[in-house]
């Protein structure tokens, strides 16, 4: 096991439901620390850039429109195996298939509007953290 950092996003539908605090509580209950945090509204162009690996997928345009439709919270989570642990706290991508008690089972509305995003690998985490945060915006919480 190693200490990792991962990028987490509370998506527009979850921000609208006013459950940011509940989602953050889940991270903290599981021992993950928020070491960087901001609320922003993505432009359509910036959403397209963030999700560029999905450019060829049929859901790409809808996803980018949704992600730029309202404010989101972006945060860096730190902890042992943070990348895979965050993915299990979130649950399966499709809320209909997400494990009961997971964030997506609780707050996801559909595959497109699934409440939260989390990096899926070390490579993605490194790119995604850099996409939103300068190194001086990430804090040491030890
Ligand atoms: P996210 O973890 O943000 O990564 C890409 C997003 O694309 C995913 O969550 C879903 O919200 C969305 N998406 C829409 N359709 C699909 C699909 N068929 N497969 C995977 N992701 C999809």
The best one-word shape is: globular
Q: Which structural class do you get from the secondary structure elements?
A: alpha+beta
Oligomeric state of shown chains:
single chain
Compute the number of helices.
Answer: 7
- N-to-C order of helices and strands: EHHEHHEHHEH
What is the strand tally?
A: 4
Description:
It is built from 7 helices and 4 strands, in the order βααβααβααβα. 34% of the residues are buried. The mean pLDDT is 97. The protein has 142 residues and is of the alpha+beta class. The protein is globular. It has a 4-stranded antiparallel sheet with strand order 2-3-1-4. It has helices at 12-16, 20-29, 44-50, 60-67, 82-90, 103-107, 122-132; strands at residues 3-10, 33-40, 72-80, 116-118. α3 crosses α4. Adenosine-3',5'-cyclic-monophosphate binds next to loops.
Q: How does the SSE layout of this entry go?
A:
Blueprint (H helix, E strand, L loop, with lengths): L2 E8 L1 H5 L3 H10 L3 E8 L3 H7 L9 H8 L4 E9 L1 H9 L12 H5 L8 E3 L3 H11 L10
Antiparallel strand pairs: 1-3, 1-4, 2-3
The structure holds adenosine-3',5'-cyclic-monophosphate (CMP).
Adenosine-3',5'-cyclic-monophosphate (CMP) binds next to loops.
């Amino acid at each position: 096991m190693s200490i990792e950092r991962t990028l987490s996003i509370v998506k527009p539908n979850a921000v609208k439901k006013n459950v940011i605090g509940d989602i953050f509580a889940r991270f903290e209950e599981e021992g993950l620390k928020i070491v960087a945090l901001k609320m922003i509204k993505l432009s359509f162009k910036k959403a397209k850039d963030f999700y560029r690996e999905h450019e060829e997928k049929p859901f790409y345009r809808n996803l980018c429109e949704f992600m730029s439709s309202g404010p989101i919270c972006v945060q860096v989570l730190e902890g042992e195996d943070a990348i895979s642990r965050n993915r299990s706290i979130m649950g399966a991508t499709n809320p209909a298939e997400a494990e009961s008690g997971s964030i997506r089972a609780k707050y996801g509305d559909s595959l497109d509007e699934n409440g939260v995003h989390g990096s899926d690998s070390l490579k993605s985490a490194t790119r995604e953290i850099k996409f939103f945060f300068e190194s001086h915006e990430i804090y040491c919480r030890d």
